[in-house]
TrEMBL record, chain A:
Keywords of this entry: Membrane, Transmembrane, Transmembrane helix
NCBIfam families found in the cross-reference section: trnsprt_adja_43
Protein name: Uncharacterized protein
Organism: Halomonas cerina
Transmembrane segments: 6-28
UniProtKB/TrEMBL annotation, chain B:
Single GO molecular function: symporter activity
An example Gene Ontology CC term for this record: plasma membrane
Family: Belongs to the sodium:solute symporter (SSF) (TC 2.A.21) family.
Protein name: Na+/proline symporter
Biased composition (Basic and acidic residues): 546-558
Transmembrane segments annotated in the record for this chain: 6-28, 49-72, 84-101, 128-153, 159-177, 189-210, 230-252, 273-297, 317-335, 368-387, 393-416, 423-441, 447-471, 478-498, 504-524
Keyword Transport assigned: yes
InterPro entries documented for this protein: Na/Glc_symporter_sf, Na/solute_symporter, Sodium:Solute_Symporter
Bilayer topology term: Multi-pass membrane protein
Main location as per UniProt: membrane
Subcellular location: Cell membrane
Renumbered residue ranges of the record's region Disordered: 544-572
Length: 42, 572
């Protein structure tokens, strides 16, 4: 029960961290592509 | 802990924190500033915003200050399942719109607002109904966000509520005014990174500071059986169901979402919206867990105000550095939504009001920019005034919610079914609003045959919501079957019961009535079937674009309100 509730609370910040890493990597890729194509990021 | 007061920053500290936040954000926008912004970029960037920036912007926009407070309140009120019933349905609002968004984008790749698409499909009256609902929604959102800033500043420092409202309003306007949507998406990324990083640290920090899983499980004895039940009917009916009903309405009625649908690279719409769904859900449900923690510890919200729950927990268990991080978290979330609202409002006034109804196809891009910036200034002033005087917006909120519900079917059907007419669109929304008022304010006694009539209309509304959701992902046949099954289920289980829940009954009635009137009038019409290919021809950019001189020309369009000969879509 303790493990289950610990997981239930902590899974959300873990997911948030995953999405944060995904977004940061994607933005770096977007930035590289924009530079290569000689256009602006936004 | 129950008697403890919140940690207080000094006036100087709060001013420095806000200066650092808004100053940093402003400096960030200097990097993307152009001497001459063009109208299209001001509204939707270059229609090629990448997956990373797009997902960050969508997530940051959808998370507003109320998301944290309401999720925590839900966790505190409904217990174990509470945060899920707030965060999950909010996240699904992002998810369920993307299949329709792809259709909107396919029909009008160069649109700036959903209203432009509807204008090309039907004409001014339908477009203006959509535009008005969007404007009211964004004004309410602005006001709520500025109010949250004022409340936060006043509870954590000696500064007044009004001072917080004004600093937030001016700060957001400062960095959005020049570059519009481009500034909004760029700063959304930075704000989201800060917001997520802080959430990742704060949630476990509070959790372990209060005693961790052992303490949480021990505190479950403080919960009622309903609060301890993950499948609590109470939570579903009072928190989950009203949100579920609003899933499509919020997404369709919100220009901040359509603006991003038209701005993101067309190939990236699906991953962008899927990532935003997960990101939003994770942050909001996670922070909602702090409400659950407070409940298990038996903490009472200070002054009976649920909005104090998170500040109380952070204040009570963590050192001042974390309280400063929490402060930035809330300011970041409300600012990212407020700048998106300003961008949305300016795009509506530029494209829907000026471009389509005042200039009537002869829009001057420079004048459009002026309209956009004046809109931002006016909207900020309205937001600050409404927030400062704590004006009661409940009636406005009720009407906007109903209007959004009433336009869902006509808007979606107009993009898929060639028989929907302008008269059917407009009439259905007006009739739906009248029926909504009759039910919501009980102007007619909801008993006997009248009660039954409204329950039948509400059942149709329920069927339509389920039908449209399934249709978006699985197509027409599956949507029709799901809608029909939901209708039958509603007729069986809701008859004689739903009339006791007037808010839900009225909302569903708005959906059902608009659908019924729209379908009947369209089927009865002898109007020629609509050719969807003409939408793309009627909705275009306002500036010339040439590969050699990317969006620097300011030559106004002279005929259709802007079909650019060398549009970015053409280059793709």
């Amino acid at each position: 029960m303790t493990t289950l509730f610990g997981f239930y609370v902590l899974v959300w910040p873990a997911l948030t961290l995953g999405v944060l890493i995904l977004i940061c990597r994607a933005v770096l890729r977007d930035r590289r592509d924009a530079k290569r194509d000689n256009r602006e990021l936004v | 802990m129950n008697n403890a007061s919140l940690y207080q920053f000094s006036t100087l500290t709060v001013i420095l924190l806000m200066l650092a936040f808004y100053g940093g954000t402003y400096l960030l926008t200097l990097g993307i500033r152009k001497k001459k912004e063009d109208a299209d970029a001001f509204m939707v960037s270059n229609h090629r915003v990448g997956f990373g920036i797009g997902a960050a912007s969508m997530t940051a926009t959808w998370i507003w200050a109320a998301s944290f407070y309401a999720a925590a309140s839900s966790g505190y009120t409904y217990g174990v399942s509470g945060p899920i019933h707030y965060g999950l349905w909010g996240a699904l609002m992002i998810l369920f719109i993307y299949p329709f968004g792809r259709r909107f984008r396919k029909l009008a790749p160069n649109a700036h607002t959903l209203g432009e698409l509807i204008h090309a499909r039907h004409g001014s009256s339908s477009q203006l109904i959509l535009a008005i609902s969007n404007v009211l929604g964004s004004i309410i959102s602005l006001m709520v966000n500025f109010t949250a800033a004022g409340a936060l500043v006043s509870v954590l420092s000696p500064l007044s509520f009004q001072a917080g409202v004004i600093i937030a309003g001016v700060g957001v306007l400062l960095y959005t005014l020049w570059s519009g949507f481009r500034a909004s998406v760029m700063t959304d990324f930075a704000q989201l990174v800060a917001l997520m990083a802080i959430a990742v640290v704060i949630i476990p920090a509070v959790f372990f500071a209060m005693g961790g899983p052992t303490e949480l499980v021990a505190g479950l004895d403080n919960l009622t059986p309903e609060q301890a039940n993950f499948f609590s009917v109470d939570a579903i009916l009072n928190q989950g169901a009203p949100f579920f009903v609003a899933v499509l309405a919020y997404a369709i009625g919100n220009q901040t979402i359509s603006q991003r649908l038209f701005a993101v690279n067309e190939d990236h719409i699906k991953p962008t919206f899927l990532t935003a769904t997960v990101g939003y859900g994770a942050i909001v449900i996670g922070l909602g867990m702090i409400g659950l923690m407070a409940l298990t510890l038996g903490i009472e919200p200070m002054n009976g105000d649920m909005n104090n729950l998170i500040p109380q927990m952070v204040s009570g268990y963590l050192p001042p550095l974390f309280i400063a991080l929490f402060f930035i978290l809330v300011i970041g979330s409300l600012s990212s939504t407020a700048d998106s609202d300003l961008s949305a409002l300016s795009a509506i006034m530029m494209a829907d009001v000026y471009g389509k109804n005042i200039a009537r196809g002869k829009a001057d891009p420079q004048r459009m920019l002026l309209v956009g910036r004046l809109t931002m200034i006016t909207a900020t002033a309205i937001g600050i005034v409404f927030a400062s005087f704590s004006l009661d917006i409940l009636v406005m909120l009720v009407f906007v919610g109903a209007l959004w519900g009433a336009i869902v079917f006509p808007v979606i059907a107009s993009c898929f079914w060639d028989r929907i007419t302008n008269a059917a669109f407009t009439t259905s929304v007006v009739v739906a609003m009248v029926m909504f008022c009759l039910a919501r304010f009980e102007w007619l006694p909801l008993a006997g045959a009248t009660g039954l009539l409204f329950e039948v209309l509400a059942s149709i509304g329920g069927g339509i919501i389920i039908g449209l959701m399934v249709f978006g992902f699985l197509g027409c046949t599956a949507g029709f079957i799901a809608g029909l099954l939901a209708l039958v289920a509603m007729l069986v289980f809701a008859t004689g019961f739903l009339r006791d829940y007037t808010v839900l009954l009225a909302s569903l009635t708005a959906y059902g009535t608009s659908t019924l009137v729209c379908v009947v009038m369209s089927l009865a019409s002898r109007q020629e079937r609509f050719d969807f290919d003409t939408i793309g021809e009627r909705v275009g950019n306002y500036h010339d674009v040439t590969p050699a001189d990317d969006r620097k020309s300011t030559k106004p369009k002279t005929e259709t309100g802007g079909l650019a000969t060398g549009t970015l879509a053409g280059q793709r």
